Amino acid sequence: MAAIHVLHGQPTPEELATVLAVVQARAAAAQAAAEAARLAGVGPASPWNDRSRLLRPEIHPGVNAWRTSGWAR
C-alpha cells in the first residue's frame, strides 16, 4: 500500500485510523471484486458484445426524412 501523507490539519490518531480503515476496506473490496470477475471470466463490457447496435435507429419524421432515412449512420 502506498504511503499516505496528511497535507492539511492535525487529525487525531482516532480520525486517522478511521480514514485508513475505510481506505483499506475499499481497496480490499475492489481487489476482491476484480478477482471474482477474473475467476468468473467476466471482462469489461465490449461494444462488440452490445446487441443494441444491431437495432435500427429511431426514425424522426421531418422535412426530407424519407430521403435521409436510407443514409448510412
Structure characterization notes:
With 73 residues, this protein is mainly alpha-helical. It is 44% helix and 0% strand. The protein has two helices and no strands. The chain has helices at 13-40, 65-68.
Structural topology:
Elements: H1 13-40, H2 65-68
Spatial extent as radius of gyration: 25 Å
Q: Specify the structural class.
A: mainly alpha
**Could you list the spans in which at least 5 consecutive residues all have pLDDT below 50?**
none
Mean pLDDT, rounded to whole units?
81
Shape: elongated
Question: Which structural traits does this protein have?
Answer:
73 residues; 2 helices
Short overview:
With about 70 residues, this protein is mainly alpha-helical. It has 2 helices and no strands.
